[in-house]
Specification:
7-stranded antiparallel beta sheet; about 35% helix; single chain; alpha+beta; 58 helices
Amino acid sequence: MARLADYFVLVAFGPHPRGSGEGQGQILQRFPEKDWEDNPFPQGIELFCQPSGWQLCPERNPPTFFVAVLTDINSERHYCACLTFWEPAEPTQEAVCLEDAAGREEEADEGGSGRLSPGTSGPPGQLFAPKTLVLVSRLDHVEVFRNSLGLIYTIHVEGLNVGLETVVGNLLTCIIPLAGGSQRTISLGAGDRQVIQTPLTDSLPISRCSVALLFRQLGITNVLSLFCAALTEHKVLFLSRSYQRLSDACRGLLALLFPLRYSFTYVPILPAQLLEVLSTPTPFIIGVNAAFQAETQELLDVIVADLDGGTVTVPECVHIPPLPEPLQSQTHSVLSMVLDPELELADLAFPTPTTPSSSLKMQDKELRAVFLRLFAQLLQGYRWCLHMVRIHPEPVIRFHKAAFLGQRGLVEDDFLMKVLEGMAFAGFVSERGVPYRPTDLFDELVAHEVARMRADESHPQRVLRHVKELAEQLYKNENPYPAVAMHKVQRPGEASHLRRAPRPFPRLDEGMVQWIVDQATAKMQGAPPAVKAERRTTVPSGPPMTAILERSSGLHGNSARRLEVVRNCISYVFEGKMLEAKKLLPAVLRALKGRAARRCLAQELHLHVQQNRAVLDHQQFDFVVRMMNCCLQDCTSLDEHGIAAALLPLVTAFCRKLSPGVTQFAYSCVQEHVVWSTPQFWEAMFYGDVQTHIRALYLEPAEDRDPSQGWEEPAEGERSALDVASEQRRLWPMLSREKQQELVQKEESTVFSQAIHYANRMSYLLLPLDSSKSRLLRERAGLGDLESASNSLVTSSMAGSVAESYDTESGFEDAETCDVAGAVVRFINRFVDKVCTESGVTSDHLKGLHVMVPDIVQMHIETLEAVHRESKRLPPIQKPKLLRPHLLPGEECVLDGLRVYLLPDGREEGSGGSGGGPAVLPAEGAVFLTTYRVIFTGMPTDPLVGEQVVVRSFPVAALTKEKRISVLTPVDQIPQDGLHLRSCTFQLLKMAFDEEVGSEKAELFRKQLHKLRYPLDIRSTFAFTLGSGHMPGRPPRATKDKGPSLRTLSRNLVKNAKKTMGRQHVTRKKYNPPSYEHRGQPPEDQEDAISVSEELEPGTLTPASALKPSDRMTMSSLVERACCRDYQRLGLGTLSSSLSRAKSEPFRISPVNRMYAICRSYPGLLIVPQSVQDNALQRVSRCYRQNRFPVVCWRSGRSKAVLLRSGGLHGKGVVGLFKAQNTPSPGQSQADSSSLEQEKYLQAVVSSMPRYADASGRNTLSGFSSAHMGGHGKWGSVRASGRSGGLSGDVGSRLAGRDMLGPPQANGAPPDPGFLRPQRAALYIIGDKAQLKGVRPDPLQQWELVPIEVFEARQVKTSFKKLLKACVPGCQALESGPTSFLRSLEDSEWLTQIHKLLQVSVLVVELLDSGSSVLVSLEDGWDITTQVVSLVQLLSDPFYRTLEGFRLLVEKEWLSFGHRFSHRGAHTLAGQSSGFTPVFLQFLDCVHQVHLQFPMEFEFSPFYLKFLGYHHVSRRFRTFLLDSDYERIEQGLLYEEKGERKGPQACRSVWEYVDRLSKRTPVFYNYMYAPEDTEVLRPYSNVSNLKVWDFYTEETLAQGPPYDWELAQVSPEPPEEERPDGGAPQSRRRVVWPCYDSRPRAQPDAISRLLEELQRLETELGRPPERWKDNWDRVKAAQRLEGRPDGRGTPSSLLVSSVPHHRRSLGVYLQEGPVGSTLSLSLDSDQSSGSTTSSSRQAARRSTSTLYSQFQTAESENRSYEGTLYKKGAFMKPWKARWFVLDKTKHQLRYYDHRMDTECKGVIDLAEVEAVVSGTPTMGAPKTVDEKAFFDVKTTRRVYNFCAQDVPSAQQWVDQIQSCLSDA
């Protein structure tokens, strides 16, 4: 029972003490005048009566009512019901306000809706003062308070004949029950009647309609945000103009939080004077009048909910974690069903008649029911995570947060984590965790309804039904008696506040009120206390918890199979079957990523512990420790899955004997895990163990279990600790005092003994094995000052040695040794303090513990010293042998193998992948650094993968990124240093160094790698050092000059070039090209920069007759270059005609640049118009960047249009010429004259072209039709619709540069009419849009500018970096599957750049094909220009699509025209900063795209492109070194290849290598090559038509990149002479793994296979094998002849050239790859009959056995004579005994390994035998045999040496062979 009201207060307006215009509240009277003992009078009531401040009003406002809430120091809430009315102000009050009334605005108040003009309420100028009646109560009966205060006001206003004192007295003495659902009628003595209902249980909040109103005002999403904000302890501020609304909103929000109680600042109505409270740092829920909104603006961390506007504003710096899915979306949908039932029916065609929606009160309960269900789902099973730490004298309960999160599967969830850490939840645990107490609706729900809620999830109607059931119960709790009699309370009449009040509110008689109160109190004391017995019960625990969302853990779904593997491995370990265990270990380590497997491991290990101790041998110990480490490595600091908890007893149980009396326990090897240094983990473990022991105290011995098994769930029928505690709490009051004391003491000593136990355990896991040094210093969370103490002993016996290696690096002095102990002691003391205080350990015991801890630690340190000493003496573990890589000839090892682990990267195939292959990574092996490559060779760490060798390598020159990483080694799970190397050949080495590799070695490796990657000088690269015998950096040995050799020639050339340059005027430096040309030159050459003069001196350019002899040689060498051969083929003139100036040709070859005087980056001979003089070229070159003036590089054979290339324009030039044609600038400068030269030059180009103007209108671009185009050439349009429709619009739009800027034009849309003239320009200049800005096209010019937007080299670089990351990601993608790859591929924009290049190229091809010439003039003329002109020539001219033509194209456009290979590839130290820019690779990718679309047009295979892509960066050949011909001459590279060579020499040119290789294998040849001679290719260039080049994505781990052919050809089986005797015939089948094997090599295409077969048969028939190309050409010719007679194509129409266009362009094509014959691959050997390698012979013989298989029976006629003979192997091979069979039927001598062997190893055809003669013993022949037992068999191909066992048998053999020969 409790008082309905504690105090009644009358508060009036009073003047402010400091005389300000504001007034203040004054308490006129309060009743009772002295405080109640149990409830002192709350301070500050006057502030809360008028929260907006006390002010006078010019008119009488209607009375207002609201309830404010005050919270006292004991967190008790006082409800202050305030009824305010206005009375005419007294003169003193008015005087206060007059001085500033004029300036003050009216205060808007919420009650003032019915205001009248001031005239009605009193004389003009009359002011009204507020007066407030306040009722203070601890009960929350708002309606009763409203009625009671209303009654008092009514009596006063209406002048009723009732004493106010009586009413107030009765109000203060009214006693009502608190809860229990009773109903009480009260009357205040004024003829009134009120019924008060009490709720059934007082633990459930009373909300009335407040929750429903809150949702109406703010909406679902906003309320959910506020709900999450309040739960996660954010600050929430409500704004409204209505005080009652503020109160209701705050009440509603609190009701939603049930069963949690809000324990922070809660002020539903905050007075204006206290607004600074809003800047408090603690969380709060506060309401403030909207009038003060401006003051709340600057609050940075407050969530503001505006109730009137319906908005919730969350500041940027505040993150409200949402509810975990799927609860968030489920709650949202249920709320919308409750609030808007019509939503479900809105779309129905025939809507059902709507059911009336619930009343507001009912809807309020339904909304609360939704949140009640939400909490039941969130906190389901929470009681299973409660730890009973003490039962008596009062329960002490702790919540195991980590276990709860782990079992619910919500470890990552931000929301639940914050809720569990919050104050509200702590209160929830201490209040609801108690096992024996009254229960309420929430307890029932969380215990019994969870299964139902889970089942209903997918049935919205069933969920709604459940919500309505809960709502009914909540409603019944608030209104237990629905049909109550109505209240009867008098109310004032309408507008009574406007009537002039008879008098002010009277002063009440204090004595009378006090008398009434005293009377009632005396009566109460006499009455017996009404004690309502609480119904206390054991709180049900409910079902064990389940995960909120059954997340399948994907890769590690713990199938029973995985658990079986774990169990088997452990049983093998303990049975001593170490080899079996070793095989299973990698699978176990993989399985241990899953939770179930880790639990299984802990359970299995428990089974092997007897009497808390298990002594193992060294190997077993290593295995157990390794598995434990693997388990612990995935444990977070909280250990939410209880794995560390389960292993904790085990790490102190497993041990090994190091020596007599010295035992090492497992804990010394598993310390390096963050969980051990987390105080929360130790607390949870401690409380768990205490609970187990406390429970055991009260259980019968029969029920007690082994406490060490405490981590298992209690079995069925067993009583949990909570059940035991509940029973004990029930019995407690009945126990005698002594018994109670005894129990308390027992519990206390249990806790104390556990504290000692844990102090020991913590010292085990926190003290490092070697406490003399602070080893492995790791900053780890939660350790405070323990950072120097954490540690892990590297598992296994090499622990000691590793410790040593760390010591040297730790950098800590011995002075700190003692500090390790100190830090551990401090950590343990803090832990002991916390847990003992919470568990009620006596202070004496606690002091004793503090004394004990340092001793425990010190004692443990002493034990560890002996263990550490002995562990160092253990023998080191045997490591696998290092596999040495195969090296190229001339390749030398720089750093021998460093042991490393190759870790899996983002490409999943290596680690098993989606293909489900074996996990070849991680692999254990070594990394080698050679002069050419970085090579990893090793074996998979998983022995079940088999004995596969894993090789990953890349050229040192291709390295693009190197960074240090720290990773866990795959086997021991120890953090190690590692390296992450990425190469531009798309290889990635992610390596962890083995423990034995010290940091010095690792650092040395990095330094050497850097040195080799960026040599100081190009001469130090592998291509130069290879085969030259000199060390890097040393000058090559001088050779004697024989006449003017090529080396001296190139020297002269450079010398002359320098002289020539020296003779020029060094005046205008401003035309100097950039300084890239000085790289790698000694400083004294600096003055040789090209400086340009207006006129060359007469001696510079001389006719041929005046050339010096050496110059003539230079000329002839220049003529031999690729360019000239190509110019002659194209009919662009010969050197002789150019020198004699024959005028018939429009173009000539000019030697003007033979000394590289005009442009260093151009070739020596250039094609220029016949009419232009050489000396004019010098002036023209000034207008262009890098002096790269326009020169012709190709001419169309059909339309005779020419393709020109140049650098971009300087500021002046054509642009200036177009911009200001006729405005002479003051003082015509030299620049203008050069512009005129340039104009003349372009005019000359135009006039050199054959004139044509058909009547057909082909001279206008818009007129040229698709039919004409279709006549010759293949068109791959940029348009979506394919081939139909006119081309004009398409080309036009692209010509207008549109396509470069935005999306392609709509299909066939006409070009911008103003851009292209109807008359076709003879020359189109393709230039950069930025460069040609503001150019005005001039109708009189015969050339036209086509501005396009191109990307720059740096964009290529950026794009390539992203492409590399997409194709070889360094770590696993967050989302698996192809989408993440495609997304990162798109982000790289690589394909977009290829699309642009192809688009521009097709545009140029179009223009050339229609007869206009094109000048490509982009950037500096050596990157994109080169890409475009090369592609144009490739698309237009079938010659360049042959092997020879493509080589010419690359030599001419890329090498001679100065693409900066060294600069773009960052070949030397100087280029390191510029980084790798793959311009050439991008070109190859474009060619690959065209190759895919037109597979029959190219003579070379896609493998050829990959080969060039790999070797243009590898620096194995000299071809792609240096930036221009000039630099190559300077280094003596350009002509040396033509000098005489002595003997075979390593290939220096990539082309030479390709030639040699092509003779031996068709690997570079495309069998589908069937060209059409007039073919012009027009590929589709849309990104959707482009494919990702497999060069970027594929790799073969069996042998590394296949582009170094000598290394790639590893023979598939052991060679003939080494096969083990007695081997059974081996199966030819083998498993081909993705990513590991190269599929094309394992299964070559049909044609390669046939060519191989052909060569085998030839070998067998004894013919010298022919070249593959001759065979192929013969077959092709025969094929064509076959196809002719009947005019129809033969079935293999791939080879016939009459396949229609569309079929051919999309033709099927064979699987490409480095396939082809395995014959004769030693590149430098001659193709003589004896040089075939053993593997090919092997293969040939194998095929013989299949050829004659039909004869191979054991019948005697096939074996005329047989026996054992020694046979001498081929050259340099040993003698070997073989079983020989003479077969007269087949006329051959066969031999086998032994008598039982069925597979023939070789055949000698007797038809080839010339003679059988006696022989002599050679080196290595059997020693014991007589000389006469030797005989030789001479065949047409070679001599076979034989030796019989003795002389008679030799004679017998010779006779038999002779007779066989004579029979024939």
